[in-house]
């Protein structure tokens, strides 16, 4: 397998880049393995900002599971790859639906995209985080949500089959 890393950045409320006193979350994707229609990736979240963050569990591959099309997957011709997994209807999230990511900490989630997207053997794919589904919020000392915007810097990957 050959992997290329592509860069992207997005922020909430139009904020981009790390600034002093800002909340920053780095999201990195990497390929773990590829065999047939199995394409295992790792999503790594690193809180590189100045405060703690709440990460909505539904919006990451929590325990290796997806409940929505959290990634944008395109084939080597840039056609969207259909999401074939579960799409759960959820209530409005409460604090119990989030996991705390302390400043300077990292958490990683592994998922086999072949279980959720129509991955075909012998094809190349680009994979990125679908930001419309991502949810990160400022954490306060009182275990509540703050109002400060979270800047998110993310990467994408291109997975090419071995020849």
Describe it:
- With 163 residues, the protein is mainly β.
- The chain has a domain at 25-133: Immunoglobulin-like (Sandwich), CATH 2.60.40.
- The chain is 0% helix and 44% strand.
- The chain contains no helices and 10 strands.
- The chain has strands at 2-11, 23-35, 38-47, 53-56, 71-75, 98-101, 106-112, 125-129, 136-138, 150-160.
- The strands form 2 sheets. Strands 1, 2, 3, 5, 7, 8 and 10 form a 7-stranded mixed β-sheet that branches.
- It is elongated.
Mean pLDDT: 85
The strand count comes to 10
Helix % is: under 10%
Indicate the low-confidence ranges by residue numbers: 1-20
Amino- and carboxy-terminal Cα gap: 8 Å
The fraction of residues in strands falls at: 35-45%
What gross morphology would you assign? elongated
Structural class: mainly beta
Radius of gyration: 16 Å
Major pleated sheet: 7 strands, mixed
Q: Count helical runs.
A: 0
CATH class of the domain at 25-133: Mainly Beta
Order of secondary-structure elements: EEEEEEEEEE
What is the CATH third-level topology name of the domain at 25-133?
Answer: Immunoglobulin-like
